[in-house]
Amino acid sequence: MSSRPSAKVGAFAIDVDSTGTGRRGTWELFVDTWNVRMGDLYPLPEFSASTVDGFRGTMRSVTLHDTVVNELWGSSSVRTEAVGTHEHDHIRLYVGLRGVTTLRDAHDQGGDAHISAGTYFMHHVVTENHFHTTPEIGRRIFIFPGDVLRSLVARKPRTGRATSPAAQILMAHTTMVQRTVSDLGPAGVHAARNALLELAKGLVLDHFDDREPAFIPALAQAAMDLADVRLTDAELSPATIATHLHVSVRTLQRAFASLDESFSAYIRRRRLEEAAAALTAPESRLSVSEAAARWHFTDSSHFIRAFKKQYRATPAQFARRSA
């Protein structure tokens, strides 16, 4: 099949809760929308009746011409029924976020491929293969045109950890694309698509060019994502995050140069936000000194000064107002 770029750009979503009615109709609406937007490039397989009737979850798809990102979070299993005989020439990258996706006897894998949370699997697709998932599932599937990545992946599938620096930069860029795709003009779409492809190459090569301007926003986002899950870590600092992402502190600082705050300021602001939330939680028994220690301020006085500067109130005043 041709991998020429499609003129279709944008995002669409399906959201089905566990108590919804008419789920078959909702699923079919998703399939119809997919077929209109990208079915000529990437036809869907047929799914099992239990998948169609019982799907519970959310699915968001983003299209950038010939490149697609499909993110699924579900609480029901998904299973193919028939995969058809379409000939393909594209690259698929599966990134596990929750649960397990199993690709049945992927042609270039020599057996089943299992993508669990925190791992990725990338391969060259020439024939469709069956797949199934565990009931609790979260994953991103990237579909790239074959001519861009085929030489790196054909007959040699790539696997690895989604926590690698290259993987985290790719995922951060993807999150930004998902958030902004509806606001992108033609030049922005072109740049976002090309950056995705270059970052996918970097994933294969386990390296990304930290001097490339197009990757700077993704580097900053990846740093913020890492900081957000380590706010109570005493070792959290620009240096530790730079080391984790395999870049220099100066490169990391440069990534934040166009933003409203430095990375150190971001860490401090987010720690104060988490402290404010904890201090005002209905069941909170946290004292000011305990909050200062948990979010690694030098002492209570330092914490109170920083808190007052951000919220124009002391922690005690802020908690009373919230109550």
Description:
By secondary structure, this protein is of the alpha+beta class. Among the domains are: 9-161, Jelly Rolls, CATH 2.60.120.10; 265-322, Orthogonal Bundle (Arc Repressor Mutant, subunit A), CATH 1.10.10. The chain contains 12 helices and 12 strands. Strands 1-3-4-11-6-9-12 form a 7-stranded antiparallel β-sheet, with helices on both faces. A 3-stranded antiparallel β-sheet has the order 8-7-10, with no helix packed on it. Strand 3 and strand 4 form a beta hairpin. Helix 3 packs parallel to helix 5 (186-205) and helix 4 (165-180) runs antiparallel to helix 5 (186-205). The radius of gyration is 22 Å and the shape is globular.
What's a concise summary of this model?
This protein has 323 residues and is of the alpha+beta class. The protein has helices spanning 23-38, 49-54, 146-153, 165-180, 186-205, 216-228, 238-244, 249-255, 263-280, 288-294, 300-311, 315-322, and strands at residues 9-16, 46-47, 57-64, 67-74, 80-82, 87-98, 100-106, 111-116, 119-127, 131-133, 137-145, 158-161. The chain contains twelve helices and twelve strands.
SSE order and pairing:
Layout: E1 9-16, H1 23-38, E2 46-47, H2 49-54, E3 57-64, E4 67-74, E5 80-82, E6 87-98, E7 100-106, E8 111-116, E9 119-127, E10 131-133, E11 137-145, H3 146-153, E12 158-161, H4 165-180, H5 186-205, H6 216-228, H7 238-244, H8 249-255, H9 263-280, H10 288-294, H11 300-311, H12 315-322
Antiparallel strand pairs: 1-3, 2-5, 3-4, 4-11, 6-9, 6-11, 7-8, 7-10, 9-12
Helix pairs in contact: 3-5, 4-5, 4-6, 6-9, 7-8, 10-11
